[in-house]
Input
Amino acid sequence: MDHAVVFGAGLAGLLSARVLADGFTRVTVVERDRLTGGPRRGVPQGRHAHALLPRGRQIIDELFPGVVAELVAAGAVPYRPLEQARMVLGGQRMCRAETPERGLALTRPFLEDHVRRRLLALPNVTLLDGWDAVAPVVRDGAVTAARIARAPHDHRVLDAALVVDAMGRAGRAATWLAEAGPGRPPVEEVEVNVGYGTCSLELPDDALGGDLLLLVGATPANPRGMALFRVEGERWILSAGGMCGDHPPTDPAGFLDFVATVVPAAMTDVMPALRAAPPPGRILPARFPKAVRRRYDRLRAPLPGLIAAGDSTCSVDPLYGQGMSAAALQAVALRDTLARGRHDLERRYFRAARRATEPVWQLALTADLAFPGVPGAPPLLSRLAGRYVARVQRAATRDPSCALAFARVVGLMNPPSALMRPAVMRAAARHGSPTVRKDRNRRRLTDS
Ligand SMILES: Cc1cc2nc3c(=O)[nH]c(=O)nc-3n(C[C@H](O)[C@H](O)[C@H](O)COP(=O)(O)OP(=O)(O)OC[C@H]3O[C@@H](n4cnc5c(N)ncnc54)[C@H](O)[C@@H]3O)c2cc1C
Output
């Protein structure tokens, strides 16, 4: 019975299983796809740009020591956000600054394959791929087993003291809770109506003048964003997307025209490099209608033996690239909860997981609700935070310490409260006012 079953072998499932392997005698991961390596049906978003933020990279390396070095040796591209990446956020280009930590640019299946291989090297972890998670079995108000199926008449029941729903956005823990008695958790949703397009490109190594990554965030003035970065296999991946229904076309020429409306005019090297590359064969589309957070932490009485992780609990707008790191933060929350024993594990875990991902949800919420096309009024606190963040972003175009503070928050290395440190506030006050910049520009124009 000291057996934990994880439904779903996406990143949240793999990281949860890693942590559970330290606390349970046996862990079984059940995955619907056959896992033969490479892109797969159950993770369609895996074909799109998936950079790993510094905090996600750090946690994954902590859980699987040396895995980042293995990934880099196999071709993944480490980058220092403000030294080797061009970051344009909130319409402002962050200035260069020394960045102690690194992100990792790679494709999603490549990351998952490496992490999975390391997980399955643990002696007490088993993977059942090609099996569908049906439901936990509940007896006397607690989970006692997990039912899985390979075909309509090929069912198995695995004894289980704990079942983890890590089935991504299709997660069903909320339904199972409703069926078992505790009821559905409250749900928060933000309709962002994001559409994505992605292609792989052959570009020269110095296509970005030596930089490894270009990231342009969407803004209310231009609800389009893009990411271009080098990945393993000497390729570049280009994703572009738009909020509120402003989606890229899927024909290669139209897609590049869309990208041209995102790349800042001052970056004169980017579009010529993209247009000179052999044309992409196909533009893969993706849709992301809404961000969803299920508040399992608010359940009056969680079901003993059932928890959830990753996108099945908190799935944010992909334009911010935080989802995998959020799953990693939840895995740490699970590890720390387990370290304090199993008593009331579900409630303690849900609360810790919510706290761990609160900055992710709040950062995305503040940014999303600033778009007039996104339904919902931002709460006063979000509006004030949004205004202050805009100041910090403007200051980050010229003040390296401010740029670093901001990059560390969006890289999830520091909580948003780090932006309230006196040095950042001083820089935001000195350099962040839009009027000061306008006046300076006017003066510059008059002088010339
Ligand atoms: C277009 C796009 C771009 C993104 N870019 C980034 C990025 O740059 N950086 C970043 O950090 N995040 C990014 N994300 C978010 C990221 O993909 C998710 O947050 C992350 O995949 C969550 O991992 P997960 O394990 O919770 O879910 P998933 O990765 O979706 O995994 C769920 C797993 O459950 C399995 N499953 C489902 N149903 C069953 C069942 N019944 N039985 C058994 N198995 C089942 C699936 O096959 C799959 O393996 C992006 C998302 C999108 C949509």
